[in-house]
Design a protein that fits this description.
single chain; alpha/beta; six-stranded mixed beta sheet; 30% helix; 24% strand
Length: 336
């Protein structure tokens, strides 16, 4: 089997998870070349890496470069990656709405990889988790409108967010004052309906607008009516979402379950009478998005509405795994 030279820019929570996924899936590459803001030696998942400072000269000889760093770094180094002949798979927001850059979840719109010009964008993790479950229903029944409420884990804000929640729990138990830095307010024993900056022209946060705009692009549905409320919750890992869906055609809960059972990347977990439904604890470290609490929307007089609850590991399913699957599909489609 051909081996591919892979680089990684950024060694935070998502970057570490990307290395883990490459190993788990036995991606055809040797040791990953890791880049960051400065030269150093670093142990990642028990293996020592010689981390090199990322510069425009870093990418010669690489076939794939996974970006798990900041938006400005991705923008700064994009042209250098493309010039080197590598494929850039970027997890930042830098290129998600660029009309010349495909925004891809392989289970949703793999065909968009065919028109890439060297850069592929990974969607926001919350969007990716949502569309894993929503896209198969859309393809079968025609999604018309979607209302989402999200319950997003502390680690969605990176390692500092998770550390702050853990420190608050320890400090509370010890009777010490709580430190608030990574989030706008104390997260322990609290919910914060504020993720990313507010757009004061409409009152939505950028996280909420990203979900709308990215879903429209990936579903090739520019007129999709979609509204979100994104909430940070005191959970370590894995995001959950409550979804209200309206379709062009009739759909029953049994039909939805059958469609989702045949969908790659989704696991139906829907036996509420036996207390079985999606939960972030069960979704943590799992490849699949869990989908359940599937029921008819009782606020409607027809069968065009559904309610559904999903949970997915945002670091894995929503970010690292999606990036590696993009690389796998590039190979599968003969694009590398």
């Amino acid at each position: 089997m051909k081996q591919y030279n892979v680089g990684l820019v950024g060694v935070g929570a998502v970057g570490t998870e990307m290395i883990k996924v490459l190993k788990e899936r036995r991606f055809p590459c040797g040791k990953v070349q890791v880049f960051a803001s400065r030269d150093r030696e670093e142990t990642i998942l028990g293996e020592t890496y010689q981390v090199r400072k990322a510069t425009p000269e870093s990418f010669n000889g690489l076939d794939i470069v996974l970006f798990a760093g900041k938006t400005d770094v991705a923008i700064e180094l994009k042209d250098a990656v493309v010039k080197a002949g590598a494929k850039m798979i970027d997890n930042s927001r830098a290129f998600r709405q660029d009309p010349d850059v495909p925004l891809v979840v392989p289970q949703v719109n793999p065909e968009d990889l065919d028109w890439n010009k060297g850069v592929i964008a990974n969607p926001n993790c919350t969007t990716a988790i949502m569309l894993e479950a929503v896209a198969p229903l859309h393809k079968a029944k025609g999604l018309k409108r979607l209302i989402a409420s999200t319950y997003q884990a502390a680690s969605g804000a990176g390692a500092p967010g998770l550390a702050e929640l853990e420190n608050q729990i320890r400090d509370y138990a010890a009777g010490r004052p709580l430190t608030v830095k990574a989030f706008q307010h104390q997260l322990m024993y609290n919910l914060i309906p504020h993720i990313d900056k507010f757009d004061m022209t409409n009152g939505y946060t950028l996280e909420e607008l990203k979900m709308r705009n990215e879903a429209r692009k990936m579903l090739h549905h520019p007129d999709l009516r979609l509204s979100c409320t994104c909430v940070r919750v005191p959970i370590a890992r894995a995001h959950s979402e409550s979804l209200n869906l309206e379709f062009e055609n009739d759909i029953t809960p049994d039909e939805a379950r059958e469609i989702l059972r045949g969908a790659e990347g989704v696991k139906v977990v829907d036996d509420p009478l036996n207390n079985i439904y999606p939960m972030p604890l069960d979704a943590t470290a799992k490849y699949d998005v869990l989908a359940g609490r599937i029921r008819q929307d009782l606020s409607r007089d027809d069968r065009k509405g559904l309610e559904m609850f999903v949970s997915g590991d945002q670091l894995l399913r929503g970010a690292a795994l999606n990036a590696v699957e993009i690389a796998e599909h590039l190979i599968k489609r003969g694009l590398i």
